[in-house]
Amino acid sequence: MNYIEIVNDAIQYIESNLHRKLALEELASRYYISTTYFYRIFHAVTNQTVKSYILGRRLTAAAIELRKTDRNIADIAFQHGFNSHEQFTRDFKKMFHITPYNYRKNNISVALKEELDVVERDFRNKNKDIIIDYSCRELKEITLLGKEIFFQPEIRCELEEAIRRGNNFEEEYFIKGTAGRLFNVMRACNSNGFRINCFSGIPAGEYTGDCSGLKQRTIPASKYAVFRYPDILGLFFHTVLGDLHKWLRVSKFKLNKGVGFDLFTLQTEDYEQTRKFYLYLPVL
Fold it and tell me: Helix H segments across the chain?
């Protein structure tokens, strides 16, 4: 089994046993690996610990039970593997910032932890840890023609609108157009809340149609770390951020902040067949 298969199987096993205490040793033994190695695999693939995931799912199951039934809170706590009413209340409040009693009484909405949907990608061992697989490339300057949009990824409607507009640009200039490559250059802006500036562009000279209304943007020459991901970045934005944060810490690379953006994605001519894109991170 590869890393993705191990974690997917472990998630299903966890989901079937949320009602009882699960030890790390029990999970690791299913795959005949050490607890340390299983911990590293799970953390690398999910960007969270086994303990935090199990606790979050148990608390979520309990929260659903609190909302749907009038059963005693202590009974619900014991049913979902908590040793006492006090422990359950303490963990519930820490995760949801409200007590189980007030959550039920006041019908307040909280952010539940959904079952993980693991993103398919490749990993490698590096400095005694497991990180997202990568390669390094030196790129010459690339001039793009395209359109830009600002959005807050935490606001679902803005993220969906950004994806829609990106899809429209892709359809017109990449899928139906003559451009052989599609770039999305991204930069985080922290003024007035966390926002993303995304510039969708095609290389100047690769598109033979009407370019009026398109802005120009340059990707500077630099060294880039290259990662491969499936489908659309916006669908699993937090997974990518977790991957890159850990990759920078373990690999010892430094970001090249002189390029004026944080990263860019690249779709090539085989994207429609592979549904894979490349993520480029400028590094030193």
Answer: 3-16, 24-29, 35-46, 50-68, 73-79, 85-96, 100-106, 156-169, 237-251, 271-274
